[in-house]
Every structure is written in C-alpha cells, then in structure tokens.
Inverse folding.
C-alpha cells in the first residue's frame, strides 16, 4: 500500500495552551491563553488512515494572547512579563523544543488516539492525544499535560498563595494541505 506524508506548520493552524490558577489567592490570577507560533508536524497516511505522526514545537515562540479573570485586565506589559516568566519556568534556553512522536495510533469512535513519547523540559513521558480528522483535511486535537510529570515547578506568586494549576490544556487545530 502506498503511503504519503503531509507536513504542517503554524501557517496551517493553531497550537494553544490554556492554564488555570490555584491557591488561596486564585481569584487574583489570570487564566491564560497562550499561542505557540512556531511548530512543525508531519502525518503519514496509508490510504486514508494515519499511521505515523510527530510534532516539534519551538518553546521560545510562545505568545500570551489573553488572561481571563484576575483583579484587572491583563495589559500588554503584563503579557510580556508573563511570557518571560513562562520561558524561565520552562527553561527555554536549556530545552528549546517540545517533541512528540506517536508510537501507536488507534482508531476510536471520535477519531484517533495517539500515544507516544512527549519530551518537555528534558523529561520524556508517554502521552495520549485525542485527535479528530474531519473530511480528511481538518485535524483537531486535545491533550492535558501535568507540570509535575515533567518536573516543572509551576509559576507562583505571593508565597504560593496563587500559582499556575498543575494541568495545562493543549488544543491543536489545523488543515492539511
């Protein structure tokens, strides 16, 4: 059977992180929406079935889009500060990429389940990603990543009274070329 590989990058879709806030002072914190503006993915198909998939994300490409909640709206200078704190938390200079390589792809009722190693912050853990493929061209995926699982200490303020929640939601939407 013939296989074909499709490549995607930030021109084909969006990769977004959503954070929560925990702690006694959580009401003061912003629930962030962060875009990752530089990434590359490839999907290999046998007929119309995906048989391999991988993605590499450039950590330094993160951009704070929005901060919901908090005592005041998130301003432009605060977004710059949040970005700097996130890059420091992720040790972006030491670990400049996040990489995922699906070792297994299983069909599900809703689409596919990809499982494979995710390398983040110098730590590799098997991670499952739920993927939907619509009309053979639209890909959407969702996953949750725990700071703890990757030895990342969540950013905190006020002596830990407010900190980024352990679990971060990842959303991916793209159109195959």
């Amino acid at each position: 059977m013939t296989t074909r590989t499709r490549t995607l990058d930030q021109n084909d879709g969006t990769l977004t992180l959503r954070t929560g806030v925990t702690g006694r002072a959580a009401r003061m914190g912003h629930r962030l929406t962060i875009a990752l503006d530089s990434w590359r993915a490839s999907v290999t198909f046998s007929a119309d079935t995906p048989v391999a998939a991988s993605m590499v994300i450039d950590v330094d490409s993160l951009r704070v889009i929005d901060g919901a909640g908090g005592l005041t709206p998130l301003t432009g200078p605060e977004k710059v500060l949040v970005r700097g704190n996130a890059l420091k938390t992720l040790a972006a200079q030491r670990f400049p990429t996040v990489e995922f390589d699906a070792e297994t792809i299983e069909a599900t009722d809703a689409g596919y389940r990809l499982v494979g190693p995710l390398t983040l912050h110098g730590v590799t853990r098997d991670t499952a990603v739920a993927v939907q493929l619509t009309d053979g061209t639209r890909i959407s995926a969702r996953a949750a990543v725990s700071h703890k699982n990757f030895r990342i200490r969540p950013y905190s303020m006020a002596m830990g009274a407010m900190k980024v929640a352990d679990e971060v939601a990842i959303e991916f939407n793209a159109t195959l070329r």
